[in-house]
């Protein structure tokens, strides 16, 4: 990520809020978000949530609640439990799993509406058992929040919602102010200022990941439908002019058909200019000799979203090594994962799927190791521990075992 042009500004914002707290926070909020915002306006009030419910329709609420149920049930399967294991000499080792106490969720805002980001951040934290979930999201110029985002937060169980965004929101969550409590972890995507701020506060708090522009790579054979492929490529291209949309196929004729279909479908998109620039600057169609070569390219790219639009997708699923999420077959387009299926849509980008995973319940858990030795166990194993410590030159380590073996 090219962040040198922004890093100095973000660093100033973080330091200013760390030192001056609420005063700096409101100054930045007035400068970047809403000019008339005051400290009293930051915390969303009950009346604002009630007003948001009055603006959304019942059909939306039905769809939202059904999606939340799907997402919650999927994440409940990820729960991990503490464990203890004794051995024959009476020693015990194990791990204690505990949820984080307070997390901060960043949801992009302003003129946009991202209730799906609310669901994907909040529900796994809730399933994990996090005691306090705080949400921050930037307001529009008039100081209001999108009603769909507000309703999603209320339905998901967010305790507090603050009208702040950008690097200043990350700073407030990381360091705490008189108004915003300090959190243990910050999750959720944002613009480049948010991403750099998360990168810089890591260590003071934990973060989920550094999210980059969205990506999709579609592997297709001659059986794939051009209109499906074009629609799926554009579904990611419309996110951002920096988004990447790649088609990897074994069929040259299909490649030409998809190119024509992309041009056709672009004409009717509400975000045509963004999608068109993304396709022109970061889109590509790659021809391969066979599906094995296609999968080798997919693994090298390690995409955020990988679609296997082939006749028998399960036969090549085993070849997938690097991907944030895999979508199998003609009827599992990427938006199914964004909103409905259940798995989290907060996924590694920029090739980081080589070593990173999607947000899960485990993202909001911490682990503590447990060790118990009996006298007999230490007598049995102590000499080995002493030997290893002495080879490292750590004689006090060795002594801590020796004094007990003499007891």
From TrEMBL:
<comment type="pathway">
    <text>Amino-acid biosynthesis; L-histidine biosynthesis; L-histidine from 5-phospho-alpha-D-ribose 1-diphosphate: step 9/9.</text>
</comment>
<feature type="binding site">
    <location>
        <position position="397"/>
    </location>
    <ligand>
        <name>substrate</name>
    </ligand>
</feature>
<feature type="binding site">
    <location>
        <position position="305"/>
    </location>
    <ligand>
        <name>substrate</name>
    </ligand>
</feature>
<keyword id="KW-0368">Histidine biosynthesis</keyword>
<dbReference type="InterPro" id="IPR022695">
    <property type="entry name" value="Histidinol_DH_monofunct"/>
</dbReference>
<feature type="binding site">
    <location>
        <position position="236"/>
    </location>
    <ligand>
        <name>substrate</name>
    </ligand>
</feature>
<keyword id="KW-0520">NAD</keyword>
<feature type="binding site">
    <location>
        <position position="191"/>
    </location>
    <ligand>
        <name>NAD(+)</name>
    </ligand>
</feature>
<feature type="active site" description="Proton acceptor">
    <location>
        <position position="305"/>
    </location>
</feature>
<dbReference type="InterPro" id="IPR001692">
    <property type="entry name" value="Histidinol_DH_CS"/>
</dbReference>
<feature type="binding site">
    <location>
        <position position="239"/>
    </location>
    <ligand>
        <name>Zn(2+)</name>
    </ligand>
</feature>
<comment type="function">
    <text>Catalyzes the sequential NAD-dependent oxidations of L-histidinol to L-histidinaldehyde and then to L-histidine.</text>
</comment>
<dbReference type="GO" id="GO:0004399">
    <property type="term" value="F:histidinol dehydrogenase activity"/>
</dbReference>
<keyword id="KW-0479">Metal-binding</keyword>
<feature type="binding site">
    <location>
        <position position="392"/>
    </location>
    <ligand>
        <name>substrate</name>
    </ligand>
</feature>
<feature type="binding site">
    <location>
        <position position="214"/>
    </location>
    <ligand>
        <name>substrate</name>
    </ligand>
</feature>
<feature type="binding site">
    <location>
        <position position="168"/>
    </location>
    <ligand>
        <name>NAD(+)</name>
    </ligand>
</feature>
<dbReference type="InterPro" id="IPR016161">
    <property type="entry name" value="Ald_DH/histidinol_DH"/>
</dbReference>
<feature type="active site" description="Proton acceptor">
    <location>
        <position position="304"/>
    </location>
</feature>
<feature type="binding site">
    <location>
        <position position="236"/>
    </location>
    <ligand>
        <name>Zn(2+)</name>
    </ligand>
</feature>
<feature type="binding site">
    <location>
        <position position="338"/>
    </location>
    <ligand>
        <name>Zn(2+)</name>
    </ligand>
</feature>
<dbReference type="Pfam" id="PF00815">
    <property type="entry name" value="Histidinol_dh"/>
</dbReference>
<dbReference type="InterPro" id="IPR012131">
    <property type="entry name" value="Hstdl_DH"/>
</dbReference>
<keyword id="KW-0560">Oxidoreductase</keyword>
<protein>
    <recommendedName>
        <fullName>Histidinol dehydrogenase</fullName>
        <ecNumber>1.1.1.23</ecNumber>
    </recommendedName>
</protein>
<feature type="binding site">
    <location>
        <position position="106"/>
    </location>
    <ligand>
        <name>NAD(+)</name>
    </ligand>
</feature>
<comment type="similarity">
    <text>Belongs to the histidinol dehydrogenase family.</text>
</comment>
<keyword id="KW-0028">Amino-acid biosynthesis</keyword>
<feature type="binding site">
    <location>
        <position position="397"/>
    </location>
    <ligand>
        <name>Zn(2+)</name>
    </ligand>
</feature>
<feature type="binding site">
    <location>
        <position position="239"/>
    </location>
    <ligand>
        <name>substrate</name>
    </ligand>
</feature>
<keyword id="KW-0862">Zinc</keyword>
<feature type="binding site">
    <location>
        <position position="338"/>
    </location>
    <ligand>
        <name>substrate</name>
    </ligand>
</feature>
């Amino acid at each position: 990520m090219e962040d040198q042009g922004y890093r100095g500004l973000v660093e100033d914002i973080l330091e200013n809020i760390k030192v001056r707290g609420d005063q700096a926070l409101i100054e930045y909020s007035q400068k970047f978000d809403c000019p008339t915002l005051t400290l009293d306006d930051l915390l969303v009030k009950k009346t604002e949530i009630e007003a948001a419910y009055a603006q959304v329709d019942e059909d939306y609420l039905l769809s939202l609640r059904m999606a939340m149920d799907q997402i919650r049930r999927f994440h409940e399967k990820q729960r991990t439990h503490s464990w203890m294991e004794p051995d024959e000499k009476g020693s015990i080792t194990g791990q204690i799993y505990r949820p984080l106490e307070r997390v901060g969720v960043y949801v992009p805002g302003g003129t946009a509406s991202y209730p799906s980001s609310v669901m994907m951040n909040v529900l796994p934290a809730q399933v994990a058992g996090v005691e306090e979930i705080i949400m921050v999201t930037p307001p529009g110029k008039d100081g209001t929040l999108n009603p769909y985002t507000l309703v999603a937060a209320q339905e998901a169980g967010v305790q507090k919602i603050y009208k702040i965004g950008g690097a200043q929101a990350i700073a407030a969550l990381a360091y705490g102010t008189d108004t915003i409590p300090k959190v243990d972890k910050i999750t959720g995507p944002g613009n480049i200022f948010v991403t750099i701020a998360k990168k810089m506060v890591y260590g003071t708090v934990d973060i989920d990941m550094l999210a980059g522009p969205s990506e999709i790579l579609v592997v297709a054979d001659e059986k794939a439908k051009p209109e499906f492929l074009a629609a799926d490529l554009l579904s990611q291209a419309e996110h951002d002019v920096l988004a990447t949309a790649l088609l990897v196929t074994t069929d040259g004729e299909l490649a030409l058909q998809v190119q024509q279909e992309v041009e056709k479908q672009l004409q009717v998109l509400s975000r045509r200019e963004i999608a068109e620039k993304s396709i022109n600057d970061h889109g590509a169609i790659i021809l391969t000799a066979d599906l094995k070569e296609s999968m080798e390219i997919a693994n090298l790219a390690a995409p955020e979203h990988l679609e296997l639009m082939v006749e028998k997708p399960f036969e090549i699923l085993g070849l997938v090594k690097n991907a944030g999420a895999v979508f199998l077959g003609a009827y599992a387009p990427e938006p199914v994962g964004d909103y409905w299926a259940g798995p989290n849509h907060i996924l590694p980008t920029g090739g980081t799927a080589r070593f990173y995973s999607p947000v899960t319940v485990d993202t909001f858990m911490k682990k503590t190791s447990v060790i118990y030795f009996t006298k007999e166990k230490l007598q049995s194993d102590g000499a080995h521990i002493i030997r290893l410590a002495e080879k490292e030159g750590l004689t006090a380590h060795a002594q801590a075992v020796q004094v007990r073996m003499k007891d």
